[in-house]
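sorry for the late reply, my laptop died twice this morning and i had to redo everyting from scratch. anyway the thing you sent over, i finally got around to it. pasting the sequence first so we're on the same page, its 173 residues, then the predicted structure underneath. double check i copied it right bc i was rushing
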Amino acid sequence: MNERYMRNPLHRQRGISMTEALVALVLLSVGMLGIAGLFVETLRANRSATSRLHAVNLVNDMSDRILANRNAGEGYSLVAGALPSSKGCVVTNNCTAEDLAQDDLAQWVPEVRAVMPPDATGNPAVTVVDVVAGTSASDPDQYRIIIRWTEAGEPRPFSYSNVLVVTPGISES
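ok and here's the structure:
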């Protein structure tokens, strides 16, 4: 090309070259992939937070049931994987404190199984209520309420537990 052609401002390059456009496209693609990865991680964290929130609410629900029926003692004992049968309390007949405890468990365990995620093989979340009865009337009962579940993509299960100390026959003010 001749020198006079290159010096003329009308003949200089306008716009961008194909190489510049491709470099810009690659940089934009890398940024979008980073944003997509962050979005997926946010969804997973949100699902985990929701499961934890449900676990806290369900354990607190059982704690409230125990406080409302504080004389049931060992009636609230629940081994892992058990599904107690309903006694039909409150609706159709009057029940003992132990029957009401079993009725509470019969309502609570299916709630936990419906809300909490199952493990990779489809087994439901594990629910346990350990009861350590007091040795005397002044010695309080201790209830340990546990919900254990597995999140998708996590190697180990999560759990939430609460220890409730209740003196039988003493109502809260």
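DSSP finds three helices and three strands in the chain.
thats about all i looked at so far, will dig more tmrw
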